[in-house]
Amino acid sequence: MGLFCLILFMSAVALWFFTNEQYTLFGVYSPTCAMRSRNMHRVVMLFFLPALFVSGRGDVTVSISQHLGLMSMDCSSVLMVLMSAFIVLLALKFFSIKASVVYAFAGALAALNLAAGRGLDRGFMMSFVGAPVMAFLLSAGIRALLRGIFSRIHVHMITLSYYMRLVVIFCIAITAAAVGFNWGGFVTGVGHMIGGEGTVVLSAVAIAALVMVASRFIGQSGNEENSTLFSEFSIYSVVSVGLSVAATLLFFSFDATAGLVYMSPAPLSVSALVMASVAGTETAQKSRMVSDEYYVKEAISMVAAPAGAFLLTCLMLHIKGFAPEDAMISFVIMAVAILVLVFLAFADYARGQRSQREATDRILYAQRQQIYEHSRALSDMELKVVLSENQALHNAVEQKRQEVMNVALSIVEQKEFLESLDDMVSRLAKTDDPKEKDRLISDLSSALKQRLSYDRDVDSQYFYAQAESLHEDFNAKLSENFPNMTQQERRLATLLRLGFSSKYIATLMNITPKSVEISRYRLRQKLGLGKGDNLVNFIKSI
Question: What is the residue range of 465's domain?
Fold first, then answer.
């Protein structure tokens, strides 16, 4: 029965610690990305388990037996301590407060100790208060030291990043070893009171190894949560917090060091040390990295966990007949307790998985919304670009059309000018009056001088070339759909498409207005139009 109680205690404590508390500590290192989460877990196991084995006969183990526990614990006492501690832990976790299993068991064991007529050592109790203070001061000092060092040296960024990565890996290793010494001393110390010194250390190492492997998957949501909590930490802040926590754990794991400040080796809460170290780092660098809610929850857990377990254990001790003497009844009660603990553990795991899925769904939804907004913005930009290009093309077409119109008008004007010259020459040839001849010659000379600057190269062939280049698609469609059309008919269709009147068309084509009407009639026949069809509208629709 003692072995069963020992396994029950170690399994419950290890399950809680490695699925809740360890991620509060090692989640600090996640923002640095010094190593992958899987590799970090392996490094923690590599340094934690040997330290746990060595701690079996360490000062923390001895200190717990001397100052906090009984020489031996029966099954009813173990059950009482387990129930008191985990009722408080689960109640706090219901309110999203992750309390320390060390503090909860310390409170429950303190109640048993007082009930047995033994007092509490002042140096041992002061360690619980002095440790966070020491972590605060160490973190502030290390952060200030790092700031002073790196402000005076000039190292290339790549080189500095490489060395700081090595420092972070060292911090992870030393922190894992420190947790093994301190937390391991707590487990083996209570284990000695339950099952003696025979197989306590080996059992603790085996159970811790199994639970650590399982926690790699069970506690993933807790790891991500703490990674988010410490996401704004710089690598210097991470190193400050990690070194201060590791140093404090090691300091209070040995009698030679703790005795220097008149205190005793004691099991410590890593959550409380992380909180104190974060506060010290924030004080040194004069900036906030975590919210006030984090400090409030940690402060509540530091007080509520030991106090709640202490009071609940005292209440159970005063319940008559709580501790049954019959071994079978004790076995049944403990079996029920195991089932309850397992159910609560898996219920918490399922809730964490559900929360993780919900968080993932929210992230995916936000990403989809972002992609939709980007696509919409891109579509709007593309539409604006197309509209702008269309407007530019429209402006270019309109400019070309205006140029063609100007050329056409210039040709008409030039022909009218030539006709006026022809009229003046005819009158000059018919008159016999010297004065009239002189006047006509003078007028003719003046008109010619005024037109000397006129561009004589502008003619109908140039005009048609410009018009056809402007309406390449139109002329191509005419040739494709109406292959029997002559060049003269295509030119007439082009002029009609440009909106010229019959008078201008006659001038441009060097024909009479009547000939224009005849050409329009023939063009209607070539196009297959009836009497009710509008020739100009049909040409513009091509």
Answer: 459-542
